[in-house]
Amino acid sequence: MKMLINVAETVVADALRGMAAAHPELVVDVENRVIARRDAPVEGKVAIVSGGGSGHEPLHGGFVGHGMLSAACPGEVFTSPVPDQMVRAAAAVDSGAGVLFVVKNYTGDVLNFDMAAELAEDEGIQVAKVLVNDDVAVTDSLYTAGRRGTGATLFVEKIAGAAAEEGQPLERVEAIARQVNANARSFGVALSACATPAKGSPTFDLPPGELELGVGIHGEPGRERRAMMTSGEIADFSVDAVLEDLQPTDPVLVLVNGMGATPLLELYGFNAEVQRVLSGRGVPVARTLVGNYVTSLDMAGASVTLCQVDEELLRLWDAPVSTAGLRWGM
Amino acid sequence: MLDADFFRRWLTAATAAVDREAARLTELDSPIGDADHGSNLQRGFVAVSAVLEKESPATPGGVLTLAGRQLISTVGGASGPLYGTLLRRTGKALGDAPEVSEAELAAALRTGVDAVMTLGGAAPGDKTMIDALVPAVDALGTSFDAAATAAEQGALATTPMQARKGRASYLGERSIGHQDPGATSSALLIGALAEAARDE
């Protein structure tokens, strides 16, 4: 499979160098793999640090900036970053008001962030953690590593980021982050597998004419394979899977997220179907975001995330944000 | 008795084994994981060899503790903390004795494996590295070669299991029929231990 890279070993470092060149408002430490706001630490402000394997761009590095993350730690492709990165990031952005770690629920991310939290606390940094686990495709949590963190990560980082930006204390920012995660659910489908640079070929075999329902964002196959469906059928299936688990009483934020290789033309068409299903189920929509935000390299497909919001969460969602991947209101 | 040099030889042999088998580990990690187990461990063990050469700890415990810390700092994912903890906790259990007996190593390795089970929450039968490590530690009382064989058989025995931990668990029943990459790399690590012992 052809890729626009030099060699697999340097893809993450190469991307970080390119990011540094494109975004002078960020401090990109290529060697230690930390992306931070140039103006951090911001006096009196809670810092938010996230991270995860690379290959999900713009998550997380593309969400560093005003109103969202203070710093991000990119790991190798689909591999959690190491504790050293997280401690370094926390130390770089902590103003003394404490640091919130936003952790997607994968075994590796959880283990590394747990170790980092302990080390950071040893250095006198106050740390809180929120685990994002919104993927309803993982049904049997007792016999699995639990629900994966996917699209809701964007909602958690944006809304908690806005709360931190307006000077709310760590306990409050943490509580808001937990509330967003508790209110959000996702479901994803793949039309093709993705290829990691290290392997150079698709990570699983998906024949033409078939799709994977309930995929994660690491090229792992989903729960079920079916004959290819139309955009409308996929919207019915995905939204129903989410609504089986979340019965919103408040309006919802909708994220129609591309997995990396599905054109916006198709994503917008898919969003029309998602809105049709939501309207048919009587779910009021507060805001909608369509685009490639939590991706899986060159996987084709999409995910739907719904997040129930009260007035306060909606106000924080609407608050100004200025990052490489998400920008409005300023 | 086993000295620091023996433990360095173990980790050198492990580095060579991971290097040799990296493509196979990644291949095993493709259908039920994310196709990077080989390259991740390769990066970690190369770093372990480099740091051991640079710092040259004088005791068995020092060698394993340093190697474990290095894995935690370089591998990432779940395997970094898990393999790092295995070596670090085994090393800590060996204390600062300049030489340790085989029985002391067996006891320390059991402490390390217990720490991995606590950290990862996995039990035997969950289709993880534990399925190779627990039989290996049980057989270590007999001989290093018996431990290597037990680890190898333990890894093979993961094929019919359904994964209950880690990324493979998301596949549910579809994880059945694939050998676990973590159990496979654990068997390589124990195989390297037997190799180091044969060189004694």
Describe this entry's structure for a reader.
The complex is a heterodimer of chains A (330) and B (200). Chain A is of the alpha/beta class and 330 residues long. Chain A folds into two domains: 8-182, Dihydroxyacetone kinase, domain 1 (Rossmann fold, 3-Layer(aba) Sandwich); 184-316, 2-Layer Sandwich (Hypothetical Protein Tm841, Chain: A,domain 3), CATH 3.30.1180.20. Chain A is 32% helix and 24% strand. Chain A is built from eight helices and 15 strands. Chain A has helices at residues 11-22, 83-93, 107-122, 152-165, 170-183, 231-243, 264-280, 311-318, and strands at residues 26-29, 34-37, 47-54, 65-66, 71-77, 99-104, 127-132, 184-190, 210-213, 224-227, 252-258, 285-291, 301-308, 321-323, 327-328. A six-stranded mixed sheet of chain A has the order 1-2-5-3-6-7, sandwiched between helices. A six-stranded mixed sheet of chain A has the order 10-9-8-13-11-12. In chain A, helix 4 crosses helix 8 (311-318). Chain A is globular, with a radius of gyration of 19 Å. The model of chain A has no long low-confidence stretch (mean pLDDT 95). The longest helix of chain B has 29 residues, at 4-32. Chain B has one domain (2-198): Serine Threonine Protein Phosphatase 5, Tetratricopeptide repeat. Chain B has eight helices and two strands. Chain B has helices at 4-32, 37-55, 60-74, 79-94, 102-120, 130-139, 144-156, 181-198, and strands at 2-3, 99-100. Chain B has 200 residues and is mainly alpha-helical. Classes of the chains: A alpha/beta (330), B mainly alpha (200). Chain B: One of its GO terms (cellular component) is cytosol.
